[in-house]
Amino acid sequence: xxxxxxxxxxLDNALPFSIPNRFFTFYELENYYNGxxxxxxxxxxxGIVFDATKNPSWLRNNHxxxxxxxxxxxxxxxxxxxxxxxxxxxxxxVGRMSQI
Length: 100
Fold this sequence. Notes:
- This protein is α+β, with helices and mostly antiparallel strands.
- It has one domain: Flavocytochrome B2, Chain A, domain 1, CATH 3.10.120.10.
- 17% of the residues lie in helices and 19% in strands.
- The chain has two helices and six strands, in the order E-H-E-E-E-E-H-E.
- Strand 2 and strand 3 form a beta hairpin.
- The termini are far apart.
């Protein structure tokens, strides 16, 4: 069975957490929310942006070959709802990716 490539943002009412109405671009994540020089560390997964700043695993701006500023959607298992639920318990949700 081929892996799913559906990376659309899930409907807010289908998620067990809320998403602030703040939008980010990959440029912003790579340059301003990259964990460098005192900036926060934000990571995007399935179009949702999480704050990994206080997580010790992300202190060096990477975690097991996953890097700040890149879309981590394709580097995680294909079980979207359980992954998002788990990650939202570990990292605060700060917004979503801009569609631009």
